[in-house]
Amino acid sequence: MISKIQNNLLTLSNLMKEFFLLIFFSVMVFVGMSYIDHKENQSILVTFLISFSILKVYILISKTLKKMEKLTMNNHKMNHVLLFSIIIIFFINISFTLDYLCVSEIYADSFTGLNHDQSLFLRFFDLLYFSIVTFTTVGYGDIIPFGKTVKLLTILEMTTAFITIVFIISRYTRNGKE
């Protein structure tokens, strides 16, 4: 029993290390952008940001699928799978929030309804809210993406949300039948 609990904790901790590393790199990209002139290098920064975001999504989804498979194959309790799912969704939201924050630094007018004059923390909070609203497909419309780059990131987040939720539901229903 104790070894199974240790195995469960080890699996979750290994997963968290990988995702924390992704978030760390996202933060480093944001910090690194402060040393680059945004106006002169907009196209280079946007190309890098979109490529980096696609790579993060690929890693997040592939790691999620592998870890979820491992959890379900090892007959983890459903509350472990649920906790894992919540953590994955949280990491996806944080990842996209950082991407949106980078885009808002490159293009100040990239979001309608976002006050660019407020503190970094409040902009982060507003963009986290936008990311969660986008992920859940609620779409209140108080913050609206404006411009091709941020719309592409929003589409990428919606696609990621769809794939993640469908996979979680399929794993849940498959476990219920086994």
How would you explain this protein's 3D organization?
It is a single chain. The chain is built from 5 helices and 2 strands, in the order H-H-H-E-H-E-H. It has 178 residues and is mainly alpha-helical. It has a single domain (2-177), classed as Orthogonal Bundle (Helix Hairpins). The two termini are 22 Å apart.
Short structural summary:
The protein has helices at residues 2-33, 42-73, 78-106, 120-135, 148-177; strands at residues 111-112, 144-145. The radius of gyration is 18 Å and the shape is elongated. Helix content is 78%, strand content 2%.
Work out the oligomeric state of the chains in this entry: single chain
End-to-end Cα distance, whole Å, is 22 Å
Radius of gyration over alpha carbons?
18 Å
Strand order in space, largest sheet: 1-2
How many helical stretches?
A: 5
Broad CATH class? Mainly Alpha
Compute the number of structural domains.
Answer: 1
Strand content: under 5%
Secondary-structure element pattern, one letter each? HHHEHEH
Shape-level CATH architecture: Orthogonal Bundle
How many beta-strand runs? 2
Stretches with pLDDT under 50, minimum 5 residues: none
Please tell me the overall pLDDT: 82
The helicity comes to over 70%
Helix-strand makeup class: mainly alpha
Main sheet summary: 2 strands, antiparallel
CATH fold name, please?
Helix Hairpins
Principal-axis shape equals elongated
